[in-house]
Design brief:
Helix content: 40-55%
Number of helices: 14
Order of helices and strands: HHEEHHEEHHEHHHHEEHHHH
Largest sheet: 5 strands, mixed
CATH topology of the largest domain: Beta Polymerase, domain 2
Number of domains: 2
Structural class: alpha+beta
Radius of gyration: 20 Å
Strand order of the largest sheet: 3-4-2-1-5
Strand content: 5-15%
Number of strands: 7
Shape: globular
């Protein structure tokens, strides 16, 4: 295991101070307290996977009194297991998780008279490390974990690996979002452009102002991590008097936009495939998918009785209907 203050960034020789700064900011964020309701349901999930870590992420992480605490929305967690053999007794689940990560499950539990609801995804620690790094082309994982998250519980031996993987996700996101911005740029501009691009790279029904609403809850996160993350990814960063940044070498906007376009095309197929798989592991998966699409976009897609009985077969058709209605709206 690598020492705690050594961040591996795809074998790039980066300044030690930038690696340590990024890792320290990430480690401090992961230690922050969460609401009692989120901790309660997160710890109950951890009991289902002894020896694994539970990471809390998503919109509810910075909204302690929000809809999730009232049982009106879902908490989002990741279970990071030592291995898939430790996570599952069933070989089928191990194979699915390796071939098309992650596996997603639903979990609910009572808390102070409210039924808390959550979904959680499962990855092995080694798989998590790889998917958060720059060797992974699509933004599904490093785009999520570049954003603030919290560790609900973790074996001590695993915590440094989680911190390093999430720091790698931040560096991966910032490096790839940098090519979308004009120079000089404010850290907030890089994150806004990067989040919007990552939303477009998935079958996510996010409204145009979603990135701004998410960033409003970040409490200075882009300002704390952007410069060290870019340096850790191999770029020279200069800070201007007004707080904006310039980069050397300057990433190619053409290549960056081309890469994000490819992620969007590739991500559409990946998202449909993941939705198909989720209906086999997620109780009520089809209803959840349709509810979330309507909640974020206002586009309602009704499922027929046959589609409820055969969610795997129904998902591609529902996805096409969603795209059609969204284009017309």
């Amino acid at each position: 295991m690598a020492p705690k203050n050594t961040l591996k960034m795809d074998n790039i020789d980066n300044p030690t101070s930038s690696r340590e700064t990024l890792l320290n900011v990430v480690a401090d964020e992961l230690k922050k307290q969460v609401s009692a309701s989120a901790r309660s349901i997160g710890e109950q999930i951890s009991h289902l996977y002894p020896g694994s870590a539970v990471v809390f992420y998503g919109a509810a992480a910075d909204d302690p009194g929000g809809e999730a605490a009232q049982g009106k929305a879902l908490y989002d967690f990741y279970v990071i297991a030592p291995s898939y053999e430790d996570a599952y007794k069933r070989k089928r689940l191990r194979i699915l998780n390796r071939l098309m990560p992650p596996n997603v499950f639903y979990f609910e539990a009572p808390y102070n008279g409210v039924t808390l609801r959550s979904k959680y995804a499962v990855l092995s620690c080694a798989h998590f490390e790889r998917l958060c790094g720059r060797a992974t082309f699509h933004s599904y994982f490093w785009g999520r974990f570049a954003q603030p998250s919290r560790i609900i519980s973790s074996p001590e031996i695993m915590r440094p690996r989680l911190e390093q993987a999430i720091a790698s996700a931040v560096a991966s996101f910032c490096r790839r979002a940098a090519g979308l911005t004009t120079t000089p740029f404010a850290p907030l501009d890089l994150w806004r452009d990067g989040l919007r691009a990552s939303y477009r790279s998935e079958l996510r029904a996010e409204k145009s102002d979603r990135a701004d609403k998410v960033l409003a809850r970040y409490d200075g996160w882009p300002e704390r991590v952007t410069s060290p993350a870019l340096k850790a990814s191999g770029l020279d960063v200069d800070l201007m008097d007004d707080g904006r940044l310039t980069l050397s070498p300057r990433p190619s906007r053409f290549l960056s936009r081309t890469a994000w376009t490819l992620r969007s095309i590739f991500g559409g197929y990946l998202s449909i495939a993941r939705l198909l798989k989720a209906t086999t592991t997620f109780d009520g998966g089809l209803e959840y998918i349709l509810w979330k699409i309507e909640r974020h976009s206002g586009v309602r897609v009704e499922a027929t009785e046959w589609q409820h009985r055969h969610p795997v077969l129904a998902t591609p058709g529902l996805a096409l209907r969603y795209y059609s209605r969204r284009t017309k709206s």
